[in-house]
Amino acid sequence: MSHALTLHAAFSIFPLILLLSLSLVAVLVFIYLAKKKPPRCRLPPAPPRLPVIGNLHQLGALPHRSLHRLSLSYGPLMLLKLGHIPTLVVSSPDHARDVLKTHDISFCSRPRLTAGHKLSYGGLDIAFAPFSDHWIRMRKLSSVEFFSAKRVQLLLPTREEEVRTLVQNISRTASANVAVNLSEMFLCLLSNVTSRALFGKRSAPVGECVRSEFDGMISRSIELMGGFVAGDFFPCMQYLLNVVTGVKWKLERNFKEIDEFLERDLEEKEERIGGDEEDGSDMASILVKLHKDESSGLTRDEIKAMLMVLFIAGADTSSAVLVWTMTELMRNPSVLAKARDEVRSIAKEKDYVEESDLHHLVYLNMVLKEALRLHTPGPLLLPREAREDCQIGGYEIPAGTRVYINAWAIGRDTNTWDCPEDFRPQRFEKSSIDYKGQHFEFIPFGGGRRICPGIAMAVATIELTLANLLLKFDWSLPDGMSKENIDMSESFGIVVHKKVPLVLVAKPVN
């Protein structure tokens, strides 16, 4: 009897012993695995975020300035959460070099953004397309057919003729004792230069510097591309948010009107190719001829995507640079006088400055560099996307991270620039730093595979325009305005413009 009770007691506590043993084993396994578990990724520092929206509320109306202020607290490499999108913000030359050069292949793709994707015909251009064999093919095509040194030289007469037209229009306005709206004039100038290069015709009537219907379409496109699109930060709800906010319908209308315009132009090109009136030197004609050659593989949508982005890049960016440069000259009379004297000493008895004179204008080139440093036209550059996991500055950057390079902040880096907020062209006097993408403390046109391919054409047009405005006119502020109260407010977008138009008084010089 006692033996039976002993067996019963043993079997009664067996489950308890088994449970305790298994629990002990589980604890030991957990401790072992915890020791073997790889360390958590070391991510870049980040400011506190809110639920759902993350750090979106910290962007403000001028994100390049807001992000610069945040970088002063959290460092030149920050990982924000904008909505549901992990976003790396780069604000120093060294880290810019890491992204644009050392790990360029890892960061050379583009995120799919609503407006850019739609207006580039599904990412078929060279600006918004993700990195792929298609992008490589289109970039090579644009480099050979549009941005080559030969093409830039071929368009020289166009640039010089349009600058003369601008001067004539300013002279007419000045003779009527009316102040000149240079913001409007510069946009018209660049629209006509770009339109002639792309389509072989001016966007405005001959001899006039006024805005056209197509200019209005492009302005609406730029506004949509540079505006806040909620769906770009919440991919899982992108379609719904774009519908609710009305972005989808605005894009559809804008895309339709531009597509119809481009279709009409391409149809005219197709009818005229081979005729006596068609010289075939404009970009649209070249692309149509390539399209007719089936071996090229060039589609009609690719042609329209290329023309669309080249017009935006050619007109909007350069006009903004011209406005900011003239604004800084008016705020710095001694710089204006020195640049003017240089131009007039080089031009001597010439009626106009020609492009062949530009390499003599050393100080004017320094003025342009300083304007590009202080007023980088695309302050955050176009966003990139990490194609793979990568390490920057000792931090892990996961694949799919969106990357913004704050070129505006880099141009104000106190470790590189002395008194960075001051307009001092002389800082470039004995400096080899230029804007061609190899000096990462100064990247107004970007760098790496995604650098702006039209630098040579843009700089030539800007310098030619500035030189002739300084040669032909003495400039002053309207009555009642002083250099101290010039409004420097910015209007944010893909390109940052002067919010209040630049209006000056021009006095023709004999």
TrEMBL record:
Bilayer-crossing regions: 12-34, 305-326
Keywords in alphabetical order: Heme, Iron, Membrane, Metal-binding, Monooxygenase, Oxidoreductase, Transmembrane, Transmembrane helix
A GO molecular-function annotation: heme binding
Name of one Pfam family that matches: p450
UniProt keyword annotation of Lipid metabolism present: no
Top-level lineage group: Eukaryota
Chain positions recorded as heme binding sites: C452
Reported cofactor(s): heme
Family: Belongs to the cytochrome P450 family.
Official protein name in the record: Cytochrome P450
Organism: Canna indica (Indian-shot)
